[in-house]
From TrEMBL:
It comes from the Bacteria. The chain crosses the membrane at residues 41-59, 118-139, 151-169, 181-204, 210-229, 241-263. The keyword Cytoplasm does not apply. This is Flippase-like domain-containing protein. The keyword tRNA processing does not apply. Keywords: Membrane, Transmembrane, Transmembrane helix. Signal peptide: none annotated.
Amino acid sequence: MKRFARPAGYVVVAAALWFLARQFAEDWPTIAAWRPGPAVVGAFITLGVVYGAVLFLLAESWHRIVGLFGAEGRQRTYRSYTATQIARYIPGNVMHIVGRALWLRGGRLTDGAIARATGLELLVTPVGAVVALALMLPFARLEGLPLLDGARPLIAVGSVALIGGLLLMSRIGPVAKRFAALTAPVLLATGFMLLLGLIFAMIVNLVGSAPVLLAAAVALTGWIVGYATPGAPGGLGSREAVVVALLGAIGAGESAVLIAILFRLVTTLGELTCFATGALVWRRLRPAAPALAG
């Protein structure tokens, strides 16, 4: 299956980009006519900086996941996250993952422990997205989105089962403490996703108009699809295609491509802000000398 996953992902990305190109051509009059004032431009820049700050929730989640396998200071875990997050735009969508692992080598964790922490982080973040979506859907009006509307019970039941399973495992056997410790990373990832949805809703309402919860649900659905597309750098293409398609379904089609572009620009600015903040802050702090594993 692994042999075919990445080629299949490239096919999905190519199809998504073709779809976006068609929509871009159709929406060009709206895009060309859009003239944001200084206040709107300032609002988008502010949202980018805010998103950069929100990314530190995921950095803290990563720190706590690493802590399940060995003691590492935030000077190393945060820096391993902030310095490598922008590498997800390198084709293949794995360099940020490899970068974090390489950054932590030579410290208190063995290579095997770093690999396990990385695998766990790859699961925890989308779990946070699903839980956040499950929290939104019961309160969102989903007219025009029958797929999401029909998925309400499935997502709700799945989230309850997942959380219940984690709570159950936290009380059973020798792994109890480790599963209990996963609560904080999942909550941090969920908080990040809720704020990501809110940022997207603000972008939508700076350009057009849509209910906040509905717009947030669109953003998280696009994020999940982008995350699950093998080889898509930063979910590029597939995330935007889902966002454009769903915005069109809820009546924001004329501005959908513009919103998707602005969403990508805001999140990219946020990732650069996170990178710069990590470089400036942690450079001033003297990292603890790591004890070699083994």
